[in-house]
Amino acid sequence: MATSTYPPPPPYYRLYKDYLQDPKSAPEPPPPIEGPFICYGANHTIDEILPSLEEQGVRQLYPKGPNIDFKKELRSLNRELQLHILELADILVERPSQYARRVEEISLIFKNLHHLLNSLRPHQARATLIHILELQIQRRKQAVEDIKRRREEAQRLLKESIGTLEDNGTSFALK
């Protein structure tokens, strides 16, 4: 399979030249990708599973298991990161040749922080979706209330108009 770092766009855009005149002339969308694929020179898979730190060859600094207190662990890793950065500053001043070990430890802490945050993404997406749906429900309820209010106002105006017309001698029935 030939790949390019920045491939040209696919020629599919030519299939949509008559779309504005006839929307049904557009082809059906392609089927979903199955299995691994190459994008910009990197291999990707469809799996939505976050690989563990061990699978990535990184030492895990927080406890394993399904019941992780994310807030506590993120705070702990953040404090540890701050401490290591201060130690790195001290080492750079006192013994500049020994900084590599501290940089590796800081990198390990960042990888652990990044992995913890990425494991929260499904929860974040779910919460965001719930919030969006609640806002939509609220807007629709407001729209319904607005329609009811305007309908009542229109009925009131119609009754007033009919009353005015009947006072002038014309008779109308409101159904």
UniProtKB/TrEMBL annotation:
<dbReference type="InterPro" id="IPR009244">
    <property type="entry name" value="Mediatior_Med7"/>
</dbReference>
<keyword id="KW-0805">Transcription regulation</keyword>
<feature type="coiled-coil region">
    <location>
        <begin position="130"/>
        <end position="164"/>
    </location>
</feature>
<keyword id="KW-0010">Activator</keyword>
<dbReference type="GO" id="GO:0006357">
    <property type="term" value="P:regulation of transcription by RNA polymerase II"/>
</dbReference>
<dbReference type="Pfam" id="PF05983">
    <property type="entry name" value="Med7"/>
</dbReference>
<dbReference type="GO" id="GO:0016592">
    <property type="term" value="C:mediator complex"/>
</dbReference>
<dbReference type="GO" id="GO:0070847">
    <property type="term" value="C:core mediator complex"/>
</dbReference>
<dbReference type="InterPro" id="IPR037212">
    <property type="entry name" value="Med7/Med21-like"/>
</dbReference>
<comment type="similarity">
    <text>Belongs to the Mediator complex subunit 7 family.</text>
</comment>
<keyword id="KW-0175">Coiled coil</keyword>
<dbReference type="InterPro" id="IPR044888">
    <property type="entry name" value="Mediatior_Med7_sf"/>
</dbReference>
<comment type="function">
    <text>Component of the Mediator complex, a coactivator involved in the regulated transcription of nearly all RNA polymerase II-dependent genes. Mediator functions as a bridge to convey information from gene-specific regulatory proteins to the basal RNA polymerase II transcription machinery.</text>
</comment>
<keyword id="KW-0539">Nucleus</keyword>
<keyword id="KW-0804">Transcription</keyword>
<protein>
    <recommendedName>
        <fullName>Mediator of RNA polymerase II transcription subunit 7</fullName>
    </recommendedName>
</protein>
<dbReference type="GO" id="GO:0003712">
    <property type="term" value="F:transcription coregulator activity"/>
</dbReference>
<comment type="subunit">
    <text>Component of the Mediator complex.</text>
</comment>
